[in-house]
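Weekly puzzle thread! Below is a chain. First person to post its structure in token form gets bragging rights.
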Amino acid sequence: MKSKFIYFLFFFFPVLIMTAQEKGIKGTVTSSDDGLPLPGATITISGTKNSVSTDFDGKFSIEEIAPDATLVVTFVGYGSQTISLKGQKNINIALKVGNNQLNEIVVTGYSKQKKADITGSVAIVNVKDMMKQPEPNPIKALQGRVAGVRVSSDGSPSGGNTKVVIRGVGTLNNTDPLYVIDGMPTKSGMHELNPNDIESIQILKDAASASIYGSRASNGVIIITTKKGKEGKMRINFNTYTSLSSYSNKLSVMNANQFGQALWQANINDGLDPNNNHLSYQFDWSVNNNKPQLNKVLVPEYLDAERTMKSSNTDWYDAISQTGVASSYDLSVSNASDKGSYLFSAGYYGNEGVVKTTEFKRLSARMNSS
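Winning reply:
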């Protein structure tokens, strides 16, 4: 009986091992419209970070994969597809063209059109993703999110010095685009607008915008639509956040004695007398074997002849910097029915910059009704 049990284990365990082994698969990804292969499509094993891409003929292979794994296939311009292998070794995948974005409604000047019907260059900004980056100026959050649009800022707490370049530099060295908020053109800074009040942002980048807004649109147009009340129950929203900021990289500054050493070495390198300098530094130095040697730095009490500027070991980064604290509080009440809609919002934003005495505070209130 014991020998039979051993034989049973001998034959049973190889079956388990063979069953648990992972197997490879091969496949082809094509377009469902014309059947042409899709090179560069991404095939990801669900639940992992492992992925491969199709070659020029739309083919791919994965050497090690569980027989019951699930694949997620994606390609730019096509809808993603999820496939369960169920032990298959060869699979053919046909992706459908994703045309959802072509049905989006785009505001172009004084009218609204489907994106598929527009011949000009229009970029639509994903406001939800933009709001994940808290900024006092909503335009600053566009940086890196729109192709062909360059956004730069000086890092001030208000973000008021944010520059946007859409169509290059104009004849009069002006790059500011035209801002249109709910149909009202303006050239003022967007740091005055509460980012939580924005529903959508569209950017008109080509010369066709000039046919709508004239010469004001020569540098491009940024159209901002604010939020309105939505049908249903009355909505009360409250958002708040607090963020801290500091220097990412601090230069290590020298003290008075270290500065004297650098000043002495600079004069020696230039072949000058180190004791004849404009900062009243004096040096005890000698020459040994034709090599200058510094013995001691005599730091003066005053650095100028008028005796108004004392020498010190001040670390100016610590003297002028601080931990920046930004706080935001936003409250909105909205509702709508078949007779009309309303939205009221109030917000406070305060930002103490990383440089002392630099700060920005904004109180905003807005009423939108129809």
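Puzzle host: Confirmed. Bonus trivia for everyone else. Helices lie at 2-20, 127-130, 210-213, 256-269, 316-320.
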